[in-house]
Amino acid sequence: MIKRTLGQLATMIKVVNDVTKFQDIEIAGVSFDTRLINPGTLFVPLKGDANDGHKYVDTAFEKGAAAVLWQKDVPNPPEHAPVLIVEDTLSALQDLAHSYRKQTSAKVIAITGSNGKTTTKDIVASVFSENYKVHKTDGNFNNHIGLPLTILAMEETTEIAILEMGMSGKGEISLLTRIAQPDAAIITNIGEAHLQDLGSRDAIANAKLEIIEGLPKNGLLIYPGNEPLLVKKISNLKQFNTCTFGETSENDIYAVDITIGEDGSSFVVPGLSDEPFFLSIAGKHNIMNALAAILAAKEFLISPSSIQAGLKSVKLSNMRMEWHDGIKGTRILNDAYNASPTAMRAVISMVENMLEDRAKIVVLGDMLELGDKEVEFHEQIGEGLDPSKIKYVFTYGSLAKNIASGARLHFPEERIFEFEDKEKLINVLKEKIEGNELILFKASRGVKLEEVVNTMVIKNEPKNIY
């Protein structure tokens, strides 16, 4: 984590008061949450629409904060206390992270995309950890507050920082990449998430491509070569080195001899190694994420054997491809952290095509932020379900009922159940389970489908590796 004196901080961000008498005080780490204050922390009070962190400055000092930032337009800053007055505390937090990033020797890999950002981050981190000291985004700290905090939590001896960049609208990736100044950037894909805010996939592609604004000349941009929206836009970016991954041989890297099971996926990368790689996460879509990680690893001279070791030991963030042992001998796949049509189709296809003696049940919830076509997108998910591979379809939510409508085109009515009450869903699901089924849970985070998952599992600890 960042460790600096207040005098040094005053050279890293614009401070409008005189901090001379406090200049030798040292801070260690930064937080905007008083619950996370440790002795020596710099507390950053943020002003929001509903709350103002300045109200908690006294609490921060009581818990051991070494110093605080204070926004200039907020009256009555503490007297005779180590306070750094700034024009805007959020901007100061972002400027501090940018300055700290430039003071370290870490190489930064930035990751964005409509789906798979967090999984790709976890894969890249696992692979790079075989050769380097790695720091990565924790959880979903991938926005205008979380990314600066991630950078400031990085040890100064970090060699590789892997930073996830999320967005909900235009301009957000631009801000994040300018703070982080990445050496390499990965775009995982262009999906339908954020259509509600951006209006079209083309606009989403433009928003994701903002990531190049922080890349240096000759920086590396890794992207899916089978995505026409990106291929067209990136073809004229001659100032960057570009590499593509995908399903076909036209890409710089692609996979063949793919085998997918519950315990993971194996595949061969032509031209890299004759030996198959094993990724400890199931699903063809995750092989695509692994290919992006392999391209980044090649750029940093990581050997095929180290790549293999890293892929075998990937640990995913919570509620992403979590395997649980469930009631009545079932296996439960909780992938309910987020959902979009692309991501939902991918995980359903994976489950449908798993070769095992288990009947399969899908529990699918609302996909949010899809804009005007949200009903159509849900219906298409239902239409795409294979009745020869899926025993029962359960839906939860006012939008997900359209998945049920789509499924009715080729599923018998007695195999489809739609709910807007979780207790009723749980009761019927438990009634229909005969034993040994594989049950997939997938929905947007706001649906909180894990509340249903928790009633079905018999072990507390999730498993990413079966």
From TrEMBL:
Q: Which GO terms describe its molecular function?
A: ATP binding; UDP-N-acetylmuramoyl-tripeptide-D-alanyl-D-alanine ligase activity
Q: Where does ATP bind?
A: 113-119
The pathway to which it is assigned is: Cell wall biogenesis; peptidoglycan biosynthesis
Q: Which UniProt keywords apply?
A: ATP-binding, Cell cycle, Cell division, Cell shape, Cell wall biogenesis/degradation, Cytoplasm, Ligase, Nucleotide-binding, Peptidoglycan synthesis
Intracellular or extracellular location(s): Cytoplasm
Q: Which Gene3D superfamilies match?
A: Mur ligase, C-terminal domain (3.90.190.20), Mur-like, catalytic domain (3.40.1190.10), MurE/MurF, N-terminal domain (3.40.1390.10)
Location of the Mur ligase C-terminal domain = 319-445
Protein's recorded name: UDP-N-acetylmuramoyl-tripeptide--D-alanyl-D-alanine ligase
The species this protein was found in = Lederbergia citrisecunda
